[in-house]
# Entry
Amino acid sequence: MARVVVDVMLKSEILDPQGEAVLGALPRLGVNNVKSVRIGKRVEIEFDDAETAAAVEEQSQIIADRLLANPVIENFTVSVPGEDAA
Amino acid sequence: MSARIGIVTFPGSLDDRDAARAVRLGGAEPVALWHDDAMLKSVDAVFLPGGFSYGDALRCGAIASFSEVMGLVRDAAGRGLPVLGVCNGFQVLCESHLLPGALVRNAHLRYRNRPARLRVETTATAWTNAYAPGTEVVFPAKHGEGRYVADEATLDRLEANGQIVFRYLDNPNGAMRDIAGVANEAGNVVGLMPHPEHAVEALTGPSTDGLGVIASILAHLREGAAR
# Structure
């Protein structure tokens, strides 16, 4: 099974108010040693079984670059988890 | 013949009817366009209204930018067709790369719903030419993802080119450099977060300043016809 994981994160220079809100809640858990929290998205994609690894890699890049991430504000990484991890 | 202004309805659009009403009150003819229309019905301009197209899935405006009608709007805008995007429409224009920058969560994370005071920063666009330079207007703002962001080089370029169209006088969302609306380089494509179409009647709006946007596009189209 061709499974691909795309992680999308706001660029470091873009304020992440959700992460800030989570950071602000941590002291209420008794956690006071956290410097920063950033929140992103994880997208799991499954291709048809017949697809070649090269096609999966190429199309995943297109999907991530053109739709899943907005390059103005976000970075992404594409990874293919090992079969055992899946 | 009055100008035909196409108003696109995406699944989840909310302000399409108010946009049509504003267009009519301003003296133009609203033309309904559907998100999977494969033609623009000979409209003279396009208005992308507010709302939550495709439920704001992924990012606001991201899915709408791949709709059938947006392919046509993108091509036509490149040839000079005037396009206005308000709120979600502005987000769609940024996601479609017709306008620079992006709109992200309000810095304070709260939905903001109140009239916004704005200054018209340039009248050299298809949608603001009827205002006097520096005019202050009041349009309702209602959004959770309205904070305009772009990298510093892009912001500097927008300032230098006069592409910042509206600026907040009381920044409601943390937008960089108080930017409420921007234009493309040619000035035919404009996007803004606050809603001129909700400011066209004393009964329902905080002002009637929004009529200036319709007056502007009509003047722009008349000028084009006279050329």
Notes: The first strand of chain B starts at residue 4 and ends at 9. The mean pLDDT of chain B is 96.
